[in-house]
């Protein structure tokens, strides 16, 4: 855990050092050249399309590299929790959508269009980077080390996804969203209380999303640490690429972000988020393997069978909408 905090501190320190990187920063409210929009729209589209193509071409692959023994990872090696996995999907969705809602709150126009392009480009690059790393490393997920036959059966149904642990796409995406979204918000308003709140809440949610992936048995701690660092690096790098004025971001905002991240990481080691949020019905799925497991695939299983009807022959279709 200490390594994660040190790494995060280095990234945030680098973030602060970029504030004078551009002599003539771009203003989000200004219309840019056609070349600018073509270039960055192309990069954004290429990132998302490239990710989809990678996933289609590598839908079947065998396990690859894994660390033999590493203390922080050993502690979560046999974790499994469907409820934590599903809750992490919900917190990721909130983390990704929040910056868009914040942009809308500032009004529709050129500023929002430019900010949305920066944000979309950051997300496209971070998902492509995580997808590529998963394919190259092919690290078995923590639950693959379980001895429970139900979890092993679940693993068999996941196919190549069971060997896609390094690094965490949830962590990298959530931290990219938190970083880029917070930067863009700081560039659009002078309301310091609101800005500090956005930084703190965004990084708190990103940390919660990451830790839930370890609790779910989908990722090791090293997976979420690297994912968080990669996400913050992209979250900083893309605004720098667009020559935005990062000098507007205050050191206190970074401190609040680091505090939210650190508190979440530490708190999650002693508190089961799903148990705490049961009162809100956010974790209705089982937290253990005491009941039959459900397939985590987003594609429902369907059966199509021939069926005789009074008016002739036909087929019956049955399945489950998850």
What does this entry look like structurally?
This protein has helices at residues 2-17, 34-57, 71-74, 82-105, 110-137, 149-158, 169-188, 192-215, 221-241, 251-267, 273-276, and strands spanning 302-309, 312-319. With 322 residues, it is mainly alpha-helical. It has one domain (2-319). The protein has a two-stranded antiparallel sheet. Strand 1 (302-309) and strand 2 form a beta hairpin. The two termini are 35 Å apart.
The sequence of SSEs as H and E is HHHHHHHHHHHEE
Shape category: globular
Tally of DSSP β-strands: 2
Number of continuous helical runs = 11
Count of domain modules: 1
| Radius of gyration from the alpha-carbon trace, in angstroms | 22 Å
The spatial strand order of the largest sheet comes to: 1-2
Mean pLDDT: 79
Name the beta content range.
Answer: under 5%
Q: Helical amount among residues, as a percent range?
A: 55-70%
N-to-C terminal Cα separation, in Å?
35 Å
Largest sheet: 2 strands, antiparallel
Helix/strand structural class: mainly alpha
List the uncertain runs: 1-22, 290-304
What key phrases describe this protein's structure?
mainly alpha, 5% strand, 2 strands, 11 helices
Quick structural gist:
Helices cover 60% and strands 5% of the residues.
């Amino acid at each position: 855990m200490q390594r994660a905090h040190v790494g995060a501190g280095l990234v945030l320190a680098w973030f602060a050092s970029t504030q004078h990187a551009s002599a003539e920063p771009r203003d989000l409210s200004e219309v840019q050249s056609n070349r600018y929009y073509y270039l960055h729209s192309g990069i954004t589209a290429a990132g998302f399309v490239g990710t989809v193509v990678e996933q289609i071409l590598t839908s079947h692959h065998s396990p690859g590299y894994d660390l033999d023994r590493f203390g922080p990872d050993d502690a979560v090696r046999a974790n499994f929790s469907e409820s934590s996995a599903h809750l992490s999907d919900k917190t990721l969705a909130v983390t990704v959508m929040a910056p868009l809602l914040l942009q809308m709150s500032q009004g529709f126009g050129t500023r929002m269009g430019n900010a949305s392009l920066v944000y979309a480009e950051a997300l496209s690059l971070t998902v492509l980077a995580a997808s590529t790393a998963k394919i190259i490393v092919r690290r078995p997920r923590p639950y693959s080390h379980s001895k429970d036959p139900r979890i092993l059966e679940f693993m068999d149904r996941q196919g190549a996804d069971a060997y896609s642990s390094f690094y965490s796409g949830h962590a990298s995406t959530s931290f990219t969203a938190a970083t880029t979204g917070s930067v863009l918000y700081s560039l659009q308003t002078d309301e310091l209380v609101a800005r500090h709140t956005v930084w703190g809440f965004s990084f708190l949610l990103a940390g919660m999303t990451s830790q839930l992936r370890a609790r779910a048995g989908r990722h090791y701690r090293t997976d979420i640490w690297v994912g968080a660092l990669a996400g913050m690096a992209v979250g900083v790098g893309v605004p720098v690429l667009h020559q935005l004025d990062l000098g507007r971001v205050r050191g206190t905002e970074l401190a609040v972000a680091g505090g939210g991240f650190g508190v979440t990481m530490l708190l999650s080691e002693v508190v089961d988020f799903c148990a705490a949020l049961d009162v809100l019905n956010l974790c209705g799925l089982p937290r253990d393997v005491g009941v039959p497991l459900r397939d985590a695939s987003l594609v429902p299983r369907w059966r199509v069978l021939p069926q005789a009807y009074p008016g002739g022959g036909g087929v019956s279709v049955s399945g489950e909408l998850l």
